[in-house]
Write a structure and sequence with these properties.
Blueprint: H1 13-21, E1 27-30, H2 44-48, E2 56-59, E3 72-76, H3 83-96, E4 100-106, H4 111-114, H5 117-138, E5 144-150, H6 154-162, E6 167-173, H7 186-193, E7 198-203
Parallel strand pairs: 1-2, 3-4, 3-6, 4-5, 6-7
Antiparallel strand pairs: 2-7
């Protein structure tokens, strides 16, 4: 049986949520309903993300019928240090009985520009596989698909995957605030674009 309790908090909504999130396993907030625009920096969502240690689920309605078999998608920025992100994503996929898509977008810099992505692709694949392997071993019941992309706009790549997903999980640096500018963080962009709910996990 699910236990439900209520708290009447006094003060600014974002501050109250941050205080009450201490000791929680998940904080759930709604999206601001502005279509493809990201939440304003002064919105509750914009003020909460980056200020709490617990994962923040930003509820967005599905933009397509939710037929069975939709995966959980985890967007891995840097495979090194992504354990907290992958731990949450694998646990969610296991609980939902869903496959997991582990996506890493390799930026077009350095040798990938000079010689083409094929030159560095084996290294990128090895880094992605190594980061996923530990958690795949801990959750053998979760089918895993590793997806490697090469491009500049990480948010566009993950947003495209979100239209066929039931949940998208991404990370953000602890303490990072949303800017509301044209150049937004991946989590900020997904909060306004994703085709399914989004979870932001604080890293570092």
């Amino acid at each position: 049986m699910l236990s439900v309790s209520g708290v009447l908090a006094v003060g600014e909504p974002a501050d109250a949520l941050v205080r009450n999130a201490a000791g929680a396993c998940l904080l759930v907030v709604g999206h601001c309903g502005r279509g493809v625009e990201a939440p304003r920096t002064d919105s509750v969502t914009g003020q909460v993300v980056g200020r709490v240690d617990v994962p923040v689920l930003i509820y967005r309605p599905f933009d397509a019928p939710t037929a069975g078999g939709r995966p959980v998608v985890v967007g891995i920025g840097d495979p090194v240090g992504s354990d907290r992100l992958l731990e949450f994503a694998f646990a969610e996929a296991a609980m939902r009985g869903a496959p997991l898509v582990a996506m890493h977008v390799w930026p077009p810099v350095g040798d990938s520009d000079r010689y083409g992505f094929g030159h560095v692709r084996p290294e990128a694949e090895d880094r992605l596989a190594a980061s996923v392997e530990l958690w795949a071993d801990k959750h053998p019941e979760v089918p895993v698909l590793r997806v490697l992309r090469h491009g500049v706009d990480v948010a566009i790549a993950i947003t495209a995957a979100s239209h066929a997903a039931q949940l998208v999980v991404v990370g953000t640096a602890r303490g990072m605030r949303w800017t509301g500018r044209a150049t937004r963080s991946v989590s900020e962009s997904l909060a306004g674009r994703a085709g399914c709910p989004v979870v932001v996990v604080a890293l570092g």
